[in-house]
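Section 5: illustrative case.
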């Protein structure tokens, strides 16, 4: 990381990328010069084209807007001549919203500051450098610090912003992007497509590519969580790129609430890329002296296609985001009773499941929704976190002790952020629900959302959960959230602060999980939100794994897990084997395929093991063995997408290669049997060309270059939904 005094250019280098920021001499505008594959010059101010008329601002005061509307701004202000989207907007006491950020100072130092109350990547003095650029709007008295932390080896720049009101009057922030980049993407040479992840309940994170036309295209959430529907991620993917080659820019927001990710293609074909908290319903009051810290955005450039981006993000999150003591450990194989019993269970039923699970080698029983209050369906009791003794006589302690005696660990489900209208909590505190005064709030799954902007509500929630965890030997918590926010209103917040609700809500969730994981440091926390609606880097800071989707069908999971693994390490993907016909889509798939697909994630079961067929049950010990055999590799290895059922509609294949390249596991799923095919030749990736690999199944030995360039035959299997694992190990030299 260098600052070239002469050219007034900051140059931030990672192993394979450069990021250049330039200061424009007279005015002190902060410009974006370059982001992409490594370049050598630190004096490349010409990239900002400030010398090209009519864009020289000092020489063209008469027509300043032609400068502002074209200059690549590093953090564009508002209402002063740049008609493109602003990175920051305010309302001042006079009701005006003009902002213009001018360079004032900067610092470069080793390490990375830890933001207060927000999740963020972490780095030490040895693996991370930070540049802070201070800018100021003198008219407003607003100070802005642009922060860039560079993980050189990891090939990542983490960008964030903080804003301070240094005036003597309140200022309202109405838009604050965490990152804004004006990228020169000359379409004459290379066109970029936009890749985003979209979905719904039970079909999260499906990949979608689209053309970037002129104007703006954005994805976002205003649902109070990162959401099933859209994802706080986008990538610019060169039309020339594929899985292993070509340019891909990835942008990923370390945040779990409302977000916007937007690309604007301008009149000059440059792209303004922005990511931050969604401005809708956002209005944050900064009193004199107060500051606001925006969550960070991860920026990465890969010259090795989508796969390069995936591996960069996987390593970053494994090494610099997830903090749990479980992050490097094999997770206990769990059996969850949700799809087994739904609300219809009692101690005896759970113990029956536990006994049978133990015989099969399963290691933990997780009791899902329905153990508290009088919750026998999803209409009641959220907020009343006392055990239902009718279902669990003798209470939690008795149940957990019995499960432990059987030889299993015990985990429990909570939905701490919610309140049922039919609950003792709601009867005592109806104003604890988020609602607009005099308006009946919208129910979703017949529940309301707790107003976590209120201190007493946060305290109640925290102690309710902590008290349960202290009652018995509980080693795992599934933290669920089954509805999104509506009717944004808080009786606690004043008129001027209602626009802070959604962000304060997310900060409170972070605070609750931070306290919980500190008080119970050995706890394995799994986040969940009606499946995978809050699967985001923010939550990974608190929990090493997140429930990927309520859709446990092996074939649906291929697409969901492909989109998830595009940006998240496999070690984070909650994946279970469930019963058939599948409860979401009614599909029947072989038990072995369900197992092979779940092995790509955390692995566990979600079925009534006492009721499934003997044939299926007999396969569990075998699958358990596979999990123990392969999980270290799956958790730690490099992920390669080989073929995509999403694209070709009949065959899926992915590979995990050990960091030392001495082992690889390839998962093939033949979704549709094709007649009159005997085998397909699948080219592998990521192996050492000069090592010889033994195929464990066939005993055959081939060089890595042969397997990568010529391929390995995968025999066609009989029937649909069939799958196969291929295990390769390097021969001793
Ligand atoms: C949604 C989760 O995703 C499910 O796994 C289950 O925990 C239910 N909620 C329980 O209500």
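Designed sequence:
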């Amino acid at each position: 990381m260098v600052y070239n005094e002469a050219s007034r250019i900051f140059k931030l280098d990672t192993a394979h990328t450069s990021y250049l920021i330039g200061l424009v001499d007279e005015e002190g505008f902060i410009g974006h010069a370059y982001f992409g594959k490594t370049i050598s010059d630190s004096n490349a101010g010409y990239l900002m084209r400030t010398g090209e008329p009519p864009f020289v601002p000092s020489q063209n005061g008469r027509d300043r807007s032609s400068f502002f509307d074209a200059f690549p701004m590093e953090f564009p202000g508002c209402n002063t001549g740049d008609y493109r989207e602003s990175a920051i907007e305010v309302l001042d006491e006079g009701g005006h919203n003009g902002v213009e950020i001018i360079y004032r100072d900067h610092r470069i130092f080793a390490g990375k500051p830890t933001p207060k109350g927000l999740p963020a990547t972490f780095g030490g003095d040895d693996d991370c450098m930070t540049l802070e650029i201070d800018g100021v709007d003198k008219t407003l008295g607003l100070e802005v610090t642009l922060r860039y932390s560079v993980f050189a080896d990891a090939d990542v720049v983490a960008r964030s912003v903080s804003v301070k009101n240094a005036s003597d009057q309140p200022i309202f922030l109405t838009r604050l992007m965490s990152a804004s980049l004006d990228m020169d993407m000359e379409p004459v040479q290379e066109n970029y497509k936009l890749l985003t992840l979209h979905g719904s309940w039970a079909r999260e994170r499906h990949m979608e590519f689209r053309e970037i036309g002129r104007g703006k295209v954005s994805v976002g959430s205003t649902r109070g969580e990162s959401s099933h529907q859209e994802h706080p991620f986008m990538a610019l993917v060169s039309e020339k790129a594929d899985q292993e080659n070509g340019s891909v820019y990835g942008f990923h927001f370390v945040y779990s609430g409302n977000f916007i990710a937007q690309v604007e293609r301008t009149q000059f074909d440059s792209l303004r890329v922005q990511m931050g908290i969604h401005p809708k319903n956002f209005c944050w009051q900064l009193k004199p002296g107060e500051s606001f810290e925006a969550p960070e955005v991860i920026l990465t450039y890969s010259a090795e296609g989508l796969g390069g981006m995936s591996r960069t993000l996987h390593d970053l999150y494994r090494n610099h985001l997830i903090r749990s003591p479980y992050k490097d450990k094999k997770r206990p194989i769990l059996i969850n009773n949700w799809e087994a019993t739904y609300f219809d269970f009692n101690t005896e039923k759970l113990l029956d499941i536990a006994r049978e699970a133990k015989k099969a080698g399963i290691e933990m029983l997780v009791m899902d929704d329905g153990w508290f209050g009088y919750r026998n369906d999803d209409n009641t009791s959220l907020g009343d976190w006392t055990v239902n003794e009718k279902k669990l006589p003798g209470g939690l302690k008795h149940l957990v002790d019995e499960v432990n005696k059987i030889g299993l660990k015990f985990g429990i489900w909570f939905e701490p952020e919610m309140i049922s209208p039919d609950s003792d909590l709601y009867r005592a505190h109806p104003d604890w629900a988020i609602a607009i005064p005099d308006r009946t709030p919208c129910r979703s799954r017949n529940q309301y959302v707790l107003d976590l902007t209120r201190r007493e509500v946060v305290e109640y929630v925290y102690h309710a959960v902590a008290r349960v965890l202290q009652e018995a030997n509980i080693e795992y918590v599934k933290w669920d959230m089954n509805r999104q926010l509506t009717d944004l209103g808080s009786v606690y917040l004043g008129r001027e602060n209602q626009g802070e609700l959604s962000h304060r809500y997310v900060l409170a969730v972070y605070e609750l999980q931070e306290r919980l994981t500190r008080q119970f440091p050995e706890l394995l926390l799994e986040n969940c939100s009606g499946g995978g609606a809050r699967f985001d880097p923010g939550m990974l800071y608190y929990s090493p794994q997140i429930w990927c989707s309520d859709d446990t069908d092996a074939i649906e999971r291929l697409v969901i897990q492909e989109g998830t693994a595009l940006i998240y390490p496999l070690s984070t993907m909650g994946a279970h084997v469930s019963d058939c016909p599948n409860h979401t889509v009614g599909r029947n798939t072989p038990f072995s395929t369900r197992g092979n697909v779940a092995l790509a994630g955390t692995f566990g079961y979600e079925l009534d093991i006492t009721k499934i067929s003997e044939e299926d049950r007999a396969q569990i010990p075998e699958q358990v063995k596979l999990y123990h055999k392969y999980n270290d590799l799956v958790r730690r290895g490099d992920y390669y997408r080989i073929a995509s059922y999403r694209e070709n509609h009949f065959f899926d294949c992915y590979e995990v290669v050990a960091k030392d390249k001495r082992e690889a596991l390839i998962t093939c799923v033949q979704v549709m049997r094709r007649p009159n095919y005997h085998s397909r030749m699948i080219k592998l990736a990521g192996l050492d060309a000069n090592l010889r690999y033994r195929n464990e199944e066939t005993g055959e030995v081939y060089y890595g270059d042969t397997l990568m360039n010529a391929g390995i035959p995968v025999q066609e299997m009989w029937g649909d939904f069939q799958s196969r694992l291929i295990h390769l190990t390097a021969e001793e030299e």
